[in-house]
Structures are given as structure tokens and as C-alpha cells.
Specification:
The chain has 564 residues and is of the alpha/beta class. It contains 21 helices and 13 strands.
């Protein structure tokens, strides 16, 4: 499947290419009509039909079904849509979080209006068309379509229609949608009723929500993500309290929340696999964030092991269950030992049942990777009861020589995305991998953003190296973000967009930054030089050769006037 085939300006020439062998067949029929007798003509026409059919089969896959590399940009619903209480939308945990005494967000702002994308989605799609991207990653707001989070609480048809309209507009402009089901905006009702992701009661509700979206959008959306960056909303939202819902428990809750969301992911994946994939032919994955970690002391074996351990406690915390069916052994051993040393009767890391392990294993059609920065790891024995960070026995730092950005946590390390992709590809048998986010921030939102151009040039160059030189199966790249937006706890003080938004203007006008123009030109060049190959595969060549031989044999039979 390639939604690019839906673009009118590209569909017609591809159809012509696909049916070129049929034109050849018609030419042959016309030629054969002049044969000496009708019997010979009918024999030759029949054989020619077989031959051309074989050639048609051989040529069609190479010319008509090759998937293009996904070049796109990404956003999330809460950060850009606004319209927080419009058309029946329910409240999310973020709608409540930003209203807590004005202390949770850096500039005391909210995303009540944000970029007004709920109203301006057609304008946003035209921006995407200007950029020349062939795909767009967005998220669906759970409380916009299910205001109370459950089917029993009622479906908001106006909310669903917004996403139907967005998807239709994307496809009408030759842009393939990639939809994220959960980008942190949990319906507040579910948080209030049973603490949201802290309770396994949430699992069937998430599956119901996923099913509803597959039913309503699955005929048009062929790329799905269940969760965006579970590490972030788990550790920052339930461990440190810096994000919604503001819970502070690194000892137990972070592990419980992660356990529940992984179980929900697996059930949603299996639901799609069984009930929707046979007809819709889409792909479902999960997108994870993390850093490629280097040893602080490259001569220290303990630091080298700490670097690997750090990635297992971030990436593999989620990806090992998805690909292998269980948590990394290093995590199970360390957390188990620390739990025992603290006098606990069992490990603070929950266990999957045998059924859950089977359901989880292989529950992803592609690896979604959000990548920004790297870090250094130093081995150090920490406490037994301090929770997630102490469980790792690692002190994490950054090299002061690495260039900075508008975000303290984001140092510019282009090599990291290459090495991170290599590490993940080696660990998980080189799965299809989509870079679902990659970008850099500043603090002024300037449109003259040469620093962002440099960032993208260097990072994309390293992605390309991972793909071409190291043969990692990278199939897509999404720049974060399409436009400046509400940057969670940082409010409107950090800007990641390649399109500027004037948040002082009620209309929220958009302006292409220099980086958007650079990305546009870069994509255009890439699509020209990396167009889907039309050279037939080996099997196709064999089939075509058989067609030619069949035709020659038929001609010999006809000339010899042998019985047919």
C-alpha cells in the first residue's frame, strides 16, 4: 500500500505505466488479425494473451506497489488543536493540570487555544502540501471522540468528524496520515474514577477507543501508533510529577503504569491484527524515545556496561516486551535484587502472565523512534529504595562540549541517532523503523533559523548513513514539529516548529521558517533521486522471460500448423 497512489497527479501516469503491457497486447492482436487464417490467428492470440498476462503480473508489483520512503512532519492534538471545550470535547488530564494554581506551566499558559488547528486544519494541510511531504503524523484526542473516555459515556460524533475531515483533506492532497492514538491527553474522567493508567481497569477502555478509531478511520489510515513516548508520560507524569497527572512516585507507580500501558498496547495490536488488518491492510506500532548512551569513561568496563544498562532501562523497558514478550533480564534482576534488599516480599517490577507474554511478543509492525539527544553514563551504586533512577545504579550526564539548544535536556549530537538506530536494529533483528520525531528547539521562534537547518542536515545525514551504509531498515522520517506549539510544562517558551506561529495574534497566523524551506527543497531532491524503483525483481524477470518463451513457442506451433 502507498497512499501516494491516491494523489491524482501521480495516479494517472502510474496507471498508464501499469497497463503498458496491455497496450502491447492490443498491438499484437491487431497484428495477428492479418494472419493467413482465422485458426492460426486465434491460436496465436490465445498464446499471446497468456504471455502478456505473465508480463503484466511481473511488471505490476515493481511499478505499482513499491512503498515510498515516508517524509513528513509531526504534531500532537493537545499541543496544536485548541478548542479545548468545543463541540462536545471532554476534559483531559492536561486541561486540568494547566489550571492548578498557575504553578505547573513555566509561563502559566494553557493550550486552550494553542495553534487553533481544530479550526485551521485545512490551512495546515496546505502548509504540508507546500512542504512537499508525503506523510503527516498527528494524534487523536481521546476525550474529543469519547468525552468521558468510555463507549458507555457516549461517542462525540463531531469530534470523530473532525478527524475524518482531516484525514480526507490529507489524502486529497496526496499526503498519507499516520495517527497516534495516545499522545498523553487522557480523558480526565478516567483519571478521576480510578487513577487512569495506575489501574488495569483502563485497559479495556483503551482497547474500545482503539477499536472505534480503527472502525471509523481504518479504511483510510494505514499507519497507526498506539502510544507516544511512554517513558516520558510515565516518568514525568507519574514519577516526577512534572507532567500531567502530576503524580510523584518513582518507586512503584512508574512500573505499574508502564505495565498497564504495555498490556493495553498488546491487546489493541491483536485486535487490529485479527479484526481489521485482513481488510484494511494497515500497520500498527508504538513509538519510543530514548538516548544513545556512551560510557563517561571509555576505558571503564563498568561505565560501558552502565551505558548499555541505561538504554535497557529506557528503550528496552518497552521494546523488549513488544519484541520479545518480557522485560530485559537486567531490569528484572536489578529491580528484584533491590526490592529484596529493601525488605519487600516481591519485586517492584510487575510480572507478565504467560498469556500476556505471548500477546506482547511481536506486537509491532514497525519500530517508531523519537530521537533528540545523547548522554553519558557512569556506574555508581545507589540506594535500594530510591526508585527508577536508583534502580539503574547510574549517574547520567552530558558532555559540556556538545552544542546546546533552547531546551536544557537537548544537546545536539547527530552521531547519536545513527548509533541509536544501529543499536535498536541489531537488538530487534532490523525491523522496519520510522523516525517519528526528530527536531531541535530555540527560545525565540525566529524564522531565520539556520541552527535548525544545520541540525536537520546533520541528523538526517546520520539517518541516511544508518540506512545506506549499515543497512538498517529505516522507512520513514518525521520532523518535529510542523509548527511552534504548546510545549507541555514549558508552555510557549520553547519552539520546535519549522513553521512559526504568532501566539500574540488571535488568528494564530503561520509563517514558513527558513528551515521549512530547506526541508521542502531537501525532500524534493530526495524524492527525485530516491523514487521507487521500477526495475523488476529477479522473480519478475523470470516471469517475463517465461512469457516471451511462451509467445515464441506459440508462434512456432502456429507456423508448423500443428494441432493445438
Amino acid at each position: 500500500y502507498s497512499s501516494d497512489l491516491c494523489a491524482t497527479d501521480k495516479l494517472i501516469p502510474r496507471v498508464i505505466d501499469c497497463f503498458a503491457p496491455m497496450r502491447q497486447f492490443l498491438n499484437i492482436v491487431n497484428l495477428l488479425s492479418a494472419a493467413p487464417n482465422s485458426k492460426m490467428a486465434s491460436r496465436m492470440t490465445f498464446v499471446a494473451a497468456i504471455a502478456v498476462t505473465l508480463m503484466l503480473i511481473s511488471s505490476a508489483p515493481a511499478q505499482c506497489t513499491a512503498e515510498e520512503f515516508l517524509w513528513g512532519t509531526a504534531t500532537s492534538a493537545y499541543q496544536i488543536e485548541g478548542a479545548w471545550d468545543v463541540d462536545g470535547k471532554g476534559m483531559s488530564i492536561w486541561d486540568e493540570f494547566v489550571r492548578r494554581n498557575g504553578t505547573t506551566i513555566k509561563d502559566n499558559s494553557t493550550a486552550d487555544i494553542a495553534c487553533r488547528s481544530y479550526e485551521k486544519y485545512k490551512e495546515d494541510v496546505q502548509l504540508l502540501k507546500q512542504l512537499g511531504v508525503n506523510s503527516y503524523r498527528f494524534s487523536i484526542s481521546w476525550p474529543r471522540v469519547l468525552p468521558n473516555g468510555t463507549l458507555a459515556g457516549g461517542i462525540n460524533e463531531k469530534g470523530i468528524q473532525y478527524y475524518v475531515n482531516l484525514v480526507d483533506e490529507l489524502l486529497a492532497n496526496g499526503i498519507q496520515p499516520l495517527a497516534t492514538l495516545y499522545h498523553w491527553d487522557l480523558p480526565l474522567t478516567l483519571q478521576n474514577e480510578f487513577q487512569g493508567w495506575e489501574s488495569e481497569q483502563i485497559i479495556p477502555h483503551f482497547v474500545d477507543y482503539a477499536k472505534l478509531m480503527f472502525e471509523r478511520l481504518g479504511d483510510k489510515v494505514k499507519w497507526w501508533l498506539t502510544f507516544n513516548e511512554p517513558w516520558v508520560f510515565t516518568v514525568l507524569g507519574y514519577g516526577l510529577g512534572a507532567h500531567a497527572p502530576g503524580t510523584k512516585d518513582l518507586v512503584n507507580t512508574v512500573y505499574i503504569v508502564s505495565h498497564n500501558l504495555l498490556r493495553a498496547h498488546a491487546k489493541a495490536y491483536r485486535l487490529y491484527e485479527k479484526d481489521f488488518k485482513p481488510r484494511q491492510q494497515g500497520k500498527v506500532g508504538i513509538t519510543l524515545n530514548g538516548a544513545y548512551v556512551l560510557p563517561k569513561n571509555t576505558s571503564s568496563e563498568l561505565d560501558k556496561k552502565a551505558a548499555q544498562r541505561s538504554m535497557e532501562f529506557s528503550f528496552s523497558w518497552y521494546s523488549d516486551p513488544v519484541y520479545f514478550g518480557d522485560y530485559p533480564e537486567e531490569m528484572k534482576t536489578r529491580i528484584g535484587n533491590k526490592s529484596a534488599a529493601a525488605g519487600l516480599p516481591k519485586s517492584r517490577l510487575p510480572e507478565f502472565t504467560a498469556e500476556e507474554k505471548a500477546e506482547l511478543k511481536g506486537s509491532s509492525d514497525f519500530f517508531g523512534l523519537n530521537y533528540y539527544t545523547s548522554s553519558l553514563a557512569e556506574h555508581k551504586i545507589l540506594s535500594n529504595d530510591g526508585g527508577y533512577y536508583d534502580d539503574q545504579d547510574i549517574v547520567s550526564t552530558m558532555d559540556p562540549s556538545w552544542p546546546g539548544s533552547g531546551s536544557p535536556w537537548l544537546k545536539v549530537t547527530p552521531f547519536g541517532i545513527r548509533e541509536g538506530i544501529k543499536w535498536l536494529s541489531a537488538r530487534y533483528d532490523n525491523p522496519p523503523l520510522v523516525v517519528t520525531e526528530n527536531g531541535v528547539s530555540d527560545n525565540d521562534g525566529t524564522t531565520s533559523d539556520q541552527h535548525r537547518i544545520d541540525f536537520y542536515r546533520e541528523y538526517i545525514g546520520n539517518v541516511t548513513q544508518a540506512k545506506n551504509e549499515f543497512k538498517c531498515n529505516v522507512v520513514g522520517y518525521f520532523a518535529w514539529s510542523l509548527m511552534d506549539n504548546f510545549e507541555w510544562a514549558e508552555g510557549y517558551t520553547e519552539y520546535f516548529g519549522i513553521v512559526a506561529v504568532d501566539f500574540n495574534d488571535p488568528e494564530r497566523p503561520r509563517t514558513l521558517k527558513d528551515s521549512a524551506k530547506w526541508y521542502r527543497d531537501f525532500i524534493a531532491a530526495e524524492m527525485t533521486t530516491q523514487a521507487p524503483a521500477t526495475t523488476p525483481k529477479a522473480g519478475s524477470i523470470v516471469t517475463a522471460a517465461l512469457g516471451v518463451l511462451t509467445m515464441a513457442f506459440g508462434l512456432a506451433l502456429s507456423l508448423a500448423k500443428l494441432p493445438f
